[in-house]
Amino acid sequence: MLRRSLVAALLVAGLAPSLAIESEGALQPCRVGGVVHELRCGTLTRPLDPANLSGATIEIGYVVAPAVARQKLADPVFVLAGGPGQSAVSVAPTMLALLSRTRNRRDIVFVDQRGTGRSAPLDCEDPTQETLAEQSEPDRQLQQVLACKARLLKRRYLPNEAALGFFTTAVAVQDLDAVRQALGAPRVNLVGASYGTRVALEYARQFPTSLRRAVLDGVAPPDMALPASYSTDGQAAFDALLAACADEPTCATAYPTLRADWRTLLGSLPRKVSAAHPLTGAVETFTLTRAMVLAAVRAPLYVPSLAAGLPAAIADAAQGRYEGLFGLQAMLQARPANRVALGMHLSVVCAEDLPRLTQSSDRPGAEFGRDDARLYARLCSVWPRGAVPKGFDAISRTRAPMLLLSGGLDPATPPRHGARVAALLGGKARHVVVPNAGHGVMAVGCMRDVVQRFIDAVDDAAALAVDADCAAAIPRPPAFRPLRSGAAPG
């Protein structure tokens, strides 16, 4: 599969007004895995090409968690998933827990963005477990993308290859507003994470009067050139982890040669090695490449509790023991909610990010380099590129209050992006940094309460004044220290 840590991780000019062609009847009772109570499910038939209402159509699926109170408020919360390519419905169990208080009086709505989940999915998930040897093959990812495209073009909702160009953000937000209309909501609140923040910003651009408030967790702005920023921000997060270990006495004592171990590991590549697969347990012999190691190191950086295991994993890998490194990577990627629809991912990135790659001011990381940029350039060369409307990458002053959240340790959407976007949005935007959080902060410590108080506040002034001082007190997980043989826990 396309390098999953990168995907873990981001239209037609003159778009027609948002319009639901027809509703497939009233909401129906349904169940969603991981949610114990009954929900309500619906579908809308939407034009594949918004400029051609008489052409091909697709189905947009969505799920509503009804408000608990009978006298509910009229402005529901729409949850926007990340990726790009993540299903919103897949994160329902987590988000319903985080927004439990807000749900007392507001519906929580999960719309699977076109190309994901229940909405004309462009998924190419291979049910077989990829071996470590397969991951090391240099042309494997390109061949997977070509095979993915061939499989997708056999699906009834894709009449031709050009149809893959209608799965971009600017088209998708029209589906989102069509669901709003179908539900009879005059305005909505948006809660987006990672790529979902780009969706929220585009919704605000196209439908400013339909937005009440928005929470942007891990800001991925529309003018970001994903592969370039990915290298820059990933390098900064990794360097910060090494520096933090050197500055913390316990970590420095446990791993006194961590930087040297890292240089030794990279300097030894590529090389033939043997290691157990983290999920199957099968011992494999394969060529360990620099790209594999960088991907394995990057994935845990998203979650500080996993990143705490990196010093031990790097020290072991420098001695030829690679199971810890691949194990940390697998812990993040094996989560079902982290699965990404590859086709939708490429339809977004190839149209919205790649064209800006050569103009990006982001310098490649000293070690992470340009490998990901080169990879995406190759993959996008065989993928249809949709049109992006004029003004898509412009960020204007917001009418609706927006709460922007950034994790200080985030390797993908660090505070520099949130700070810049907040300044462009103007006085109705507030940026909160959680210094010791990674990618996504809503679920960390007190932040779920901050988010809910922002949404539930009775007026805009109260929303923007919500107390978020608790963010500074959230600690960084200490570096993991494995017990030595025969040692007692202490």
Question: Would you mind describing this structure in some detail?
Answer:
- Belongs to the peptidase S33 family.
- With 490 residues, this protein is of the alpha/beta class.
- The chain has a domain at 226-332.
- The chain has helices spanning 4-7, 92-98, 132-135, 140-152, 169-183, 195-206, 226-247, 249-254, 258-267, 290-301, 304-307, 310-318, 323-333, 342-352, 371-380, 415-425, 447-456, 460-464, and strands spanning 22-23, 28-30, 39-47, 57-65, 77-80, 108-111, 188-193, 211-217, 271-276, 283-288, 402-407, 429-434.
- Strands 1, 2, 3, 4, 5, 6, 7, 8, 11 and 12 form a 10-stranded mixed beta sheet that branches. The protein has a two-stranded antiparallel sheet with strand order 9-10.
- The chain is globular and about 60 Å long.
- A hairpin with a 6-residue loop joins strand 9 (271-276) and strand 10 (283-288).
- Helix 9 (258-267) packs across helix 12 (310-318).
- The two termini are 41 Å apart.
- Are there runs of 5+ residues with pLDDT below 50, and where? 3-24, 485-490
Radius of gyration: 22 Å
Kindly name the structural category. alpha/beta
Mean pLDDT: 92
Quantity of strands, as a count: 12
Oligomer category: single chain
What's the helical proportion of residues?
25-40%
Distance between the termini: 41 Å
| Order of H and E elements | HEEEEEHEHHHEHEHHHEEHHHHHHEHEHH
Strand content: 5-15%
